[in-house]
Amino acid sequence: MSGPDATAPVLLSIDRGIAHITLNRPDSANAFDLPAAQAFCSVVDRCADDDAVRVILVTGAGRRFCGGGDVRSFVAAPDHGAYVHELAATLGAGLRRLADLSIPVVAGVHGAVAGAGLGFVLAADLVTAARSTRFTMAFSNIGLTPDSGVSYLLPRVVGLRRALDLTLSQRVLTADEALEWGLVNEVVEDNDVRARAADMARLLAEGPAAAFGQARRLLRSSYEVSRDIHAEDEARTIGSAVTSGEAGELIAKFLGR
């Protein structure tokens, strides 16, 4: 771990190019109050500023990956509306920052992924789910609406009809259903999820991580720009990539075959 406080709500360790972010409020289902959201933003910034980070791995401590927002903190706040607005804006900004990085993101999820917890799944590029994991929007169960980028990214990942179904019907998806919908990449046995996610992160870290990172940036940014602007970005990015040491070594190896 990079910091001395193992009780922090979000932990960060960096080893061999892998930045491991652990959501660390297990007694609260890793739900987010404002200090936890602020800690997450700080951790993402540290990853962004560290040139040694080639891949980010996100997991959750305890029995559940993430229960979304900490409802008890909503109720305890003197001004409910102002508090929830700040919490949603803060966590949403951190997740947007994570999604926008030119660094591949892997997530290993288990137990429950609810509400804003889906924001982590949607911000990740490769997601491994434990077989017993359940996925739910949860917001409407307490009369609230989606936040943390979920309403923006979910229809782009699973399609509008399925996004509306998950939002309005209050249904709970199994891990196998989440796989069928394209919400996760694979389902493994519960005891294997952390090791499998770590293996995926390691394989990316050992590969052309800079190219992976720029590729994920291009794919994610395609939601928000015109075809012409995106084409210019593609050409500029590959033109820059071909001059990199990483590409030079791999091209030489390819031609040497």
UniProtKB/TrEMBL annotation:
Q: Which domain of life is it from?
A: Bacteria
Q: Enumerate the GO terms in the molecular function aspect.
A: catalytic activity
Q: Which Pfam families match?
A: ECH_1
The record's Gene3D superfamilies line, in alphabetical order, gives: 2-enoyl-CoA Hydratase, Chain A, domain 1
- Give the InterPro entries listed for this entry: ClpP/crotonase-like_dom_sf, Enoyl-CoA_hyd/isom_CS, Enoyl-CoA_hydra/iso
- PROSITE patterns found in the cross-reference section: ENOYL_COA_HYDRATASE
PANTHER family listed in its UniProt record = EG:BACN32G11.4 PROTEIN, ENOYL-COA HYDRATASE
Family, similarity comment? Belongs to the enoyl-CoA hydratase/isomerase family.
What name does UniProt use for this protein? Enoyl-CoA hydratase
Q: Which organism is it from?
A: Streptomyces brasiliensis
